[in-house]
Amino acid sequence: MSGPMTEDRLVQATTAAYFRDVLGWDSIYAYNDEVLGPDGTLGRRSEGEVVLTRELRAALQDLNPGLPADAYDQAVRLIVETSAVKSLVQINREKYGYYRNGVPVAVKRPDGSTQDLRLRVFDFGEPTNNRFLVVRELWVAGYPYRRRPDILGFVNGISLLFIELKNVHKDIRHAYDKNLADYRDTIPHLFDHNAFILLSNGQRAKVGTITSQYGHFHEWKRLAEGEQGVVDLETALRGLCSKANFMDIFENFLLFDESSGKVVKIMARNHQFLGVNRAVDAVRNRESLAGKLGVFWHTQGSGKSYSMVFFSEKVRRKLTGNFTFLVVTDREDLEKQIYNTYVGVGAVNPKEPCRASDGERITIGTYR
Asked: Same structural domain for residues 145 and 32?
């Protein structure tokens, strides 16, 4: 390892070792050790690259076998390209669409016609079929800046996780105000693909998204319902970055909401992740439960509208069946709030008749 072992680097090394030894991620220390080139350490041709195309192409071929080389080339180009005219959240939203729904490519058939396909980038059904890699202190070049994030987490070559670590004597707020803000200004393309951001001082940790203000970064206190909450980095890493949880959060617990007039990226909070998954399991086992699915209790301001969206969207994606969701409220303002949330995240088409005008005339419309 190059350079002195400072307190900051000790926190980094301990965190990377936890990823490797406990969570099963591969780990590389890149600072001044990375060899550039297609056959180099990570396959990057330059420090400006934030997608590990060697890993990405291998994943595309494994998950979508038997296609002509041009199909994989098209997918890599769409994923890698960035834009100077789109905002960061616009780019991030576009990439997320590719990752969850597949990358659109056109493949020529032997008869000369064209077949439109969507290539999978990740195996959401079996998380261990993906390659998980953490890289410490990777040089990332923008123009004219060059920065070295503490830890980046790659899955199949895509930089989905950003971790900024301070030593135990510093407030986590410094990681947000000074480091994260600087990286977003100087190397913004690093966040084109980001799923979520973790800030820590080696003891406490907070998680948020590329649009989160510091006050909206939250703690991950529990791994299961019924546990006593513990606010520490290890709990956050186990809850967020175990391979199964990471891919579940990435697929099912991220939303882009424009109901407020601007697009914000929403990530489920700890209680929403645990509660929604228990509710989905109850639907999955509804026959053995005799239809008694239980109650998902929320306090005021705890995000019940988003929990409803996370629940209905995950049921729709992961369970077989033709489900209809009926939302019943006792107040018009609450009904409007929930409806606007569903529209704002794209789960409901406002042009479809899916909203009752009153309690006497309920219309069951089309859910997305």
From this structure: yes
How many C-beta neighbours within 10 Å does residue 103 have?
Answer: 23
Q: What is the mean pLDDT of residues 41-57?
A: 96
Same domain for 162 and 274? no
Q: What is the pLDDT of residues 76-126, one digit of tens each?
A: 999 999 988 999 999 999 999 999 999 999 998 888 889 999 999 999 999
- Contact in structure between 241 and 228 (CB atoms under 8 Å): no
Same structural domain, 159 and 16:
yes
**Does residue 129 sit within a domain?**
yes
> Which whole number is the average pLDDT over 197-225?
93
My answer on whether 76 and 218 are in the same domain is yes
Alpha helices (runs of H) in 3-154, residue ranges in sequence order = 7-21, 53-63, 69-80, 88-101
162 and 298 fall within a common domain? no
CB atoms within 10 A of CB 2: 8
Q: Which amino acid is at 314?
A: K
Contact assessment for residue 193 and residue 202, using Cβ atoms and an 8 Å cutoff: no
Quick check: helix, strand or coil at residue 23? coil
The span from the CA of 276 to the CA of 283, in Å, is 11
> What's the number of domains the chain is made of?
2
Q: State the pLDDT at residue 258.
A: 93
Domain contains 108? no
Give the domain range for residue 245. 7-99+122-252
Name which of 183, 186, 188 is nearest 163 in CA terms.
183
213 with 241: CB under 8 angstroms? Answer: no
Residue spans of alpha helices (H) in the chain: 7-21, 53-63, 69-80, 88-101, 172-174, 181-186, 233-241, 243-252, 270-284, 304-318, 332-344
